[in-house]
Amino acid sequence: MSQEKIIEILSNIKEPVLGKDYVTLDFVKGISLNGKNLTLTLGITEINDEIIKKATDEVTSEFRKKMPEINIKDLKFTIGITEHTDAKKKSIMPGIKNTIAIASGKGGVGKSTIAVNLAVALAKEGAKVGLIDADIYGPSIPLMFGINKKPGVTKVGEKSMLVPLERYGVKVMSIGFLIEDKSAVVWRGPMASSALKQFIGDVVWDELDYLLFDMPPGTGDIQLTLSQTIPLTCAVIVTTPQDISLADARKGYVMFERVNVPTMGIIENMSYYQNPDGSREYIFGKGGGQRMSEEFNVKLLGEIPLNMKIREGGDQGIPVAEGDSGSEVTGIFKRIAKDTIREINLMNVKNSEDQGLVIEI
Ligand SMILES: Nc1ncnc2c1ncn2[C@@H]1O[C@H](COP(=O)(O)OP(=O)(O)O)[C@@H](O)[C@H]1O
Ligand SMILES: [Mg+2]
């Protein structure tokens, strides 16, 4: 009885970032009532002092009004991640809440670097994260994660499934774990697409909040096939400030638009080099990411400097996002991870509202 009443009250309190109630969002993570003492754990889109204070005030005042007999002994907040509701995604990967393609038109702009660091930073925020190296022509995830092993195999019913390798709190799968001589395989479009399908369907991912795809460069047929193979929540486009890279990034945006995948954000990489005295040099030009963001009305998620630690982290298999949170670059990836969680939550809430708009005739 009390339990029902508690849920009823929570169904009337809105999570401050998304403006939807905790029950609808599936953000009621724990209720434990011991006599008059209530311990409550709720999901929230962003954990910062201001938002936690607002949420705490709202919850305590509602309970004081509607259930004055109980005492909220402990009110905890954990990261709340909503699910992208999509029928195709649900049938292919039921335990996976959201899928994100990290893409760009060009190679060498830092997609893999960003995919790896974003995955690690999301895991540090408390999300369950997986990463698929979809760049089966030039897999870089094994090196960037410092993994030199083969994934295990397990039986699920009759079927043999691969067990993803796990590091820095991220489950990863790459063709690089499976083939000895990378030059031996010449992939054609359909083969690439079926290899990717296996990484989705024949791997034990369990439950994931985010599955990231480190995409191969380009916007040709293969990329298009891949984008259609994976039921994507959204794309994140990586570009450098240079015109030539931006031109390709625009093509990337248009390609995803053609297959109805929204671009959630743009990340500008190699934005500047910071001298020891704090002054900045704009080696590849300035403000390109910002201009593209305005042109397409897509959020600029971040501007990442050209930084030796980022390159070294990639080569040594220890992503900078894993490093100490006081460092500037680690902080940038942390900010991007927080924004990613918020933007995707907002997108999912909007989607489910749109889907709820059924017009009956
Ligand atoms: N912001 C950065 N600062 C320094 N080096 C970087 C940065 N971003 C990427 N790199 C380096 O540039 C190279 C290419 O990056 P990579 O992520 O493999 O690009 P892509 O996946 O787009 O081909 C790698 O050696 C990587 O370590
Ligand atoms: Mg790459």
Task: Spell out the blueprint of helices and strands.
Blueprint lengths: L1 H9 L17 E7 L2 E8 L4 H18 L4 E9 L7 H6 L3 E8 L7 H14 L4 E5 L7 H5 L6 E5 L2 E5 L1 E3 L2 E5 L14 H13 L6 E7 L6 H9 L4 E6 L3 H16 L4 E7 L3 E2 L5 E2 L6 H9 L2 E6 L3 H9 L11 H29 L5
Parallel strand pairs: 2-3, 4-10, 4-11, 5-9, 5-10, 11-12, 12-15
Antiparallel strand pairs: 1-2, 6-7, 8-9, 13-14
The structure holds adenosine-5'-diphosphate (ADP) and magnesium ion.
Adenosine-5'-diphosphate binds next to helix 4 and helix 10.
Describe the structure.
With 361 residues, the protein is α/β, with parallel strands linked by helices. It has two domains: 2-79, 2-Layer Sandwich (GMP Synthetase, Chain A, domain 3); 87-356, P-loop containing nucleotide triphosphate hydrolases (Rossmann fold). The protein has eleven helices and 15 strands. The chain has helices spanning 2-10, 49-66, 87-92, 111-124, 141-145, 189-201, 221-229, 243-258, 288-296, 308-316, 328-356, and strands spanning 28-34, 37-44, 71-79, 96-103, 129-133, 152-156, 159-163, 165-167, 170-174, 208-214, 234-239, 263-269, 273-274, 280-281, 299-304. The strands form four sheets. The chain has an eight-stranded mixed sheet with strand order 8-9-5-10-4-11-12-15, with helices on both faces. A hairpin with a 2-residue loop joins β1 (28-34) and β2. It starts with a helix and ends in a 5-residue tail after the last helix. Bound molecules: adenosine-5'-diphosphate and magnesium ion (MG). The site of magnesium ion has 5 residues, from α4.
